[in-house]
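Researcher: I'd like a candidate sequence for this fold, 328 residues long. If you have to choose between options at a position, lean toward the conservative one.
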């Protein structure tokens, strides 16, 4: 048994004070952290329960939405503003897990999910740079069917598991963070890190930092958006490939587009190359496929996951075609 202390924070200030203990971790729904503790991958010296902190969803004067970090995934997916103005987010959350997990999991915790790489979880028999920097990566030469094809490094090929974060990346979401020295905001697209030589550094958070909210900008295009998740089975499996997209068409041409991918990289992957090619061009399947191919041109498949390149290209094309057909 690995001992740890437990305390419950009444507000953000108290949470930050309690988390100043070296090795402390914030506890939301615990749907990932507790599993990792059971596997002895995570060994916090203290747990600071933050489920009593901000759990409101507020409409902003500018038309955006402020989502407290303590909001449960189920509440966010069911919120009427999210369902009508940001349907891609609602659909991504509903695709992510069972109802029981969604009822427990928080928005802040969802951002901090750790990879489901089998070698990462195998604390006794596998080498993993994400778990123990400098140890090596058994996934690179091992069974890597679920692993990344974009943004990888020689140190790590793990994928980010969240569905919600893929939608947030497409929606230009912003993460609000509190620390002992003040507050700051970080674009969701910059919040997660690529592996580089230190895959154990997964986000821009510093020790003791607390996520307090996620903000969605007023984004009219988001009302015409969708999410598709391709997985091995129909329910409760992590994505082989997922696509979050929003599309605006004017006169048969792409006026604006938002596109992000999941299941293919160490972080939610904003498809900037594809977006740039699509804007101002024809809104048809040929153009959608060409943009997808351009985005995936730098993909580096491993022994067992080369199929993800074609799967991602087809899924991007299908989702954008579906949105184009609906708008027409």
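Model: Candidate sequence:
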């Amino acid at each position: 048994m690995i001992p740890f202390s437990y305390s419950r924070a009444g507000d953000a200030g108290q949470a930050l004070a309690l988390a100043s203990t070296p090795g402390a971790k914030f506890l939301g729904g615990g749907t990932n952290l507790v599993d990792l503790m059971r596997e002895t991958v995570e060994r916090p010296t203290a747990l600071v329960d933050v489920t009593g902190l901000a759990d409101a969803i507020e409409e902003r004067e500018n038309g955006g939405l402020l989502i407290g970090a303590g909001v449960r995934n189920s509440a966010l997916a069911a919120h009427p503003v999210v369902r009508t103005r940001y349907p891609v987010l609602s659909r991504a959350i509903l695709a992510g897990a069972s109802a029981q997990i969604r009822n427990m999991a928080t928005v802040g915790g969802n951002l901090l999910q750790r990879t489901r790489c089998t070698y990462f979880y195998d604390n006794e028999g596998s080498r993993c740079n994400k778990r123990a920097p400098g140890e090596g990566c058994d996934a690179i030469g091992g069974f890597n069917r679920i692993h990344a094809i974009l943004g990888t490094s020689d140190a790590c090929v793990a994928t980010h598991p969240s569905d919600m974060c893929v939608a947030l990346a497409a929606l230009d979401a912003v993460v609000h963070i509190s620390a002992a020295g003040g507050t700051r905001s970080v674009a969701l697209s910059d919040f997660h890190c690529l592996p580089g030589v230190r895959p154990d550094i997964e986000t821009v958070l510093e020790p003791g930092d607390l996520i307090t909210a996620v903000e969605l900008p007023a984004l009219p295009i988001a009302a015409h958006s969708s999410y598709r998740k391709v997985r091995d089975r129909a329910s409760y499996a992590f994505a082989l490939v997922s696509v979050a997209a929003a599309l605006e068409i004017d006169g048969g041409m792409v006026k604006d587009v938002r596109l992000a991918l999941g299941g293919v990289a160490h972080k939610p992957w904003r498809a900037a190359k594809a977006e740039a090619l699509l804007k101002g061009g024809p809104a048809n399947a040929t153009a959608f496929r060409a943009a997808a191919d351009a985005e995936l041109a730098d993909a580096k498949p491993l022994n067992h996951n080369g199929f993800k390149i074609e799967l991602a290209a087809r899924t991007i094309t299908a989702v954008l075609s579906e949105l184009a057909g609906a708008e027409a």
